[in-house]
Amino acid sequence: MTKRTKAILDKLDEVYTREYKCYLDHETPWQLLIATMLSAQCTDARVNIVTKELFKKYDTVEKFANADLKELEQDIKPTGFYHNKAKNIISCTNTLMEKYNGEVPDSLEDLTALAGVGRKTANVIRGNIFNQPSIVVDTHVKRISKRLGLTKEDDPEKVEFELMKVLPKDHWILYNIQIITFGRQICFARGPKCEECFLTDYCLEYKEKNKKKKIKK
DNA sequence: CTCCCGATAT
DNA sequence: ATATCAGGAG
Predict the structure, then answer these.
(1) pLDDT tens profile A166-208
(2) Which amino acid residue lies closest to nucleotide C3, measuring CA to C1'?
């Protein structure tokens, strides 16, 4: 790990010390799996509103596996992409019943083989449920890792592999939740609050912004 | 690369 | 009007 990377991680640790919680409400592994599937291109706040009722109505994996497609679509509609998500949830939970005795598997291969589960969702499960070091590359991690110059890649899988090289393994899971928190509070996609940011010394975009200002003056 | 897609902020 | 939100599949 370079000095620069360590300085960034130290700053993050300083501000987001024990903010280690998952923002998707869940009580079981399969609930987190479904909540994460629903979170694609949707705010976690909305996912939590939907799952609050959803997990009362479907309180077992088996109930999801036997759900009526059209009815489930309506139940999850506010999260968007509801045709695909409903179909995937039914297919995925059927696989859980048939191949895994209704449990959620822990390997990346088994998880990504499930319908509607890609590397991002699989890594959320591995990190949060099984405590396996894993890098979750979502929209926040990708955007902010680029701004901080930790990667130049655009493809989420390449970002994941590069961050695995750059970040110490014992910081992988923590990095995810820190960056998501940072992205929600300060480093927005649109109009980031650079005045309140504690990482401007390491931000490539901030550097660019100041260059342009100086030229104008 | 395109499509899936509703809700909210700007 | 448009960008963005804890992405994934064909």
Answers:
(1) 999 999 999 999 999 999 999 999 999 999 999 999 999 998 8
(2) A190
CB under 7 Å from any atom of strand B: which residues? A 41-43, 46, 77-78, 80-85, 190-191
Kindly report the three-state secondary structure assignment for every residue of A165-201. Answer: HHCCHHHHHHHHHHHHHHHHHCCCCCCCCHHHCCCHH
Return positions of chain C under 7 A from a protein CB: 3-9
Q: Who contacts A45 (Cβ-Cβ below 8 Å, separation ≥6)?
A: none
Q: Span A27-128: which CATH code?
A: 1.10.340.30
Q: Nearest CA to A200 among A190, A186, A214?
A: A186
Domain ranges of chain A: 27-128, 134-214
Residue closest to C2, CA→C1'?
A: A190
Which of the four CATH numbers 3.40.47.10, 1.10.1670.10, 3.40.50.2300, 3.40.50.1220 does domain A134-214 have?
1.10.1670.10
